[in-house]
Amino acid sequence: MSATPIQSRNSRDLTPVDAARTQLLEEISYHSQETLRLKTLLNSRRAISRLPPELLLHIFLLQAEAFQQENLLRWPAAEYCNRKPPEHKPLYTWTNVALVCRGWRELALQSTQLWACLVLDERVPATWVRTILARAERVPLTVVMHAVSHTHCSGCVSNNHPEQNYRYAVELLAEVLPATRRLAVFIGKSDYADVCNALCGPAPQLEWLHFEGIEEFADSYGSETPAVTLPQGLFSPGVPPLRSLSVSTIEFDWHSVLILRTLRHLKVIRRRSNNTNLQAPLALSLSRFLDVLQELPRLESLELDNTAIPKYDPAAQHHPVTLPHLCHLHLSLASKNTSHLISHLCFPKTATVHLAMPPHSHQIPALLSEPTVLEAQQNFIVNTLEGMAVLGIATHLPQSLFYEASPEQSPCCIWAENTGSGDSPSVFPSSWDALEPKPPRLIVESPLGGPLLDGVFAAIDLRHLRFLSISEGPESPPRWTNTLRHAENLTTIYVSGTMAFGLGAALVGWTRPPSMDEGSANGPHDSSFPPSSWVGFAEAADDSLHFASDARARSGSDQGASDALSVRFPRLRVLRISRMDFRLARPMTPVERWRYHDFISDIMFHASGTPYGLDDEGLVRSLRLRAEHGGTRLDRLEFVDCQCFERERLVGLLGVVSELWWDGKRLTEADLPVQTLARV
């Protein structure tokens, strides 16, 4: 038990006021020491304190690497708009583990690898940089150089002597270059010759290199070429053992000494701007570019934006290039030359081909509306899947819809396996969870119901397709079910968000007939925003629902006809619906709409007269009709992270599926009493 505070011996010689003040100070000191002792005792009994030092240090290193990859080795741009602005970019935050407690500090200071990252920036004092460098000792370094003074606000640099810090950063860059293993250089100023001069020395350990011209700085020049040019003569004498080279918004010479046979990863992004006047094509011809690739036999990943893809000259001779180790190919759909490039590349069928749209694009490029270009893009996508069986398809929106990309850039991922000499793969995945972790064969940034993928899926064999996952996007259920209507062996569908609202109508090919919209101008919705095509299925008269013959249903000739329905995906066994709201019993008031559905996409439901929420009655009707007209009965209908205020809405589903699940629990009639406004 700790001792109580002891009164000072000299308190009798003090005045009463001074004695009282001294006593208070002693008590404050005592309680501070006691608080520290108790905190130390508490920390020693925490679970994390019982971790072996080796494991705790491993966690520190993983955290440091994750921070550096996320915040330091790339520049925050529009796609990271949910974070702090670039001028407030965090720099040494990962070192905070050394400030938590004495034990953590001692452990952190014992590790040289934890301090092996230098951020050279005008906000960082020279004393702190020297401290980090001393703690790193002789381990290979990760160096991040910021030559971007114009992006910093005065509050960040006013008290840190920015000019002096920057000069020291450039000097130190040249000093540590021989010990640098990874180097990232960000340039956002017109005079960057000092940085280039600092990089003219030898770099015998350099394996990873990234050069980037800051987008805002490069675009401010208004030229057709990047404002930053990568000079010749870097890292001489000698040749660095580069394994990864990435250049972004920088004029790059393909005959640079940095194009080495040791390269495993190559990324060239010449322009990120959405200003088409700045999209200058690459001067290099396809034949010369293929000569460059011929010298990179170890290449594992290649990424080019639409302005870095070489021009195709039909009069020139082109030879195919084999890249036997290629795992990832990232090209742009917005270039006419993409199809010519990919047709001259030979790479394994296990490689992933990512066909991207330009960032910040809010519409499909005009070139994709040209029939010849559209057909060429469709043909090389189909050729990429030649000799392969399509097993799974998934779509999802980019992370930040309103800032980063448009719905037209919704990635569509296609999983396919080589069929070899047979007609089908030897082994089918047992479930979607077994297939999804594998890298997809194709990633196409185009909506599933759009013209590009419509033509692709019409041309390929979908009889091996087993799994489908549809997230939020511009597609409506009738669009993607119609696009994939030939996938008769599909067994599993995962749907999330608003994509599930009209699923019942889509699974039998029903669309809203024009007769339902007669007189809609005087109805509850604006005639300029007609209801979604699936609205009204639950209320449609029985005598209006006519199923086509099996032969006609297989041919797909009943598209969009409400009097000729067909069972889509007749062998469907598992349906999972996630992150979705059931329809409320009463319409929401205007106040409730804005309070609970403040996204414009939700508000548009009400503007068009489309009820917000799952059409559960339509889903029940659809599953019953499917079973009556040759479709298999669902083995499992699962709801995950959904909202349902009226449990009785689930009762009807029990009669049309074998198993009904809600958030991992199988439901029975006993679990669903009729109770108004009871929340599941």
From TrEMBL:
Pfam families membership: F-box-like
Stored SUPFAM superfamilies: RNI-like
Limits of the F-box domain: 48-120
InterPro entries per record: F-box_dom
Protein name: F-box domain-containing protein
Species, as recorded: Trametes pubescens
Taxonomic lineage: Eukaryota, Fungi, Dikarya, Basidiomycota, Agaricomycotina
